[in-house]
Design goal:
By secondary structure, the chain is mainly β. The protein has 1 helix and 7 strands; from the N terminus they run αβββββββ.
């Protein structure tokens, strides 16, 4: 018996790209750092909030790469000349990725109290009815 997938199901035409997106998402390597929230701010808008305490605006990069929102953080090493008796605040880098659906656009990003906010909006597609003429053979 043949295993049906999104790309091979006879009634799901053109969904092979969705299957690749799901595979890419599962392999994105996102660990638990930094913690984040995703909230719906209106019917067609969302906000992703990452806890990035210790990172400044210049330590963060936000890009959209092939329908994937990628947020990277890399702190500058400022430990030269310091002697730590205890170092419990890690200065580690991170990369957090989110796959965006068609029509979702990244708006603005802002920092507030150690939280990075990235706003997203979803364009509502216009409903189009197309009539297909049948040729006489």
């Amino acid at each position: 018996m043949t295993k049906l997938t999104l790309g091979t199901h006879p009634q799901l035409l053109g969904f092979d790209q969705l299957e690749r997106l799901l595979e890419r998402t599962s392999k994105s390597g996102n660990e638990g750092y930094p913690p984040y929230n995703i909230e719906q701010t209106s019917e067609n808008s969302y906000r992703i909030t990452l806890a990035v305490a210790g990172f400044g605006e210049n330590d963060l990069a936000i890009t959209v790469e092939d329908r994937q929102l990628v947020i990277r953080g890399r702190q500058q090493d400022d430990s030269a000349g310091r002697v730590y008796l205890h170092r419990g605040i890690a200065a580690r880098q991170f990369q957090r990725s989110f796959v965006l659906a068609d029509g979702v656009e990244v708006g603005e990003a802002s920092m507030e109290n150690g939280l990075l906010h990235v706003d997203l909006t979803r364009a509502v597609p216009e409903t189009i009815v197309q009539k297909i003429l049948i040729k006489k053979g």
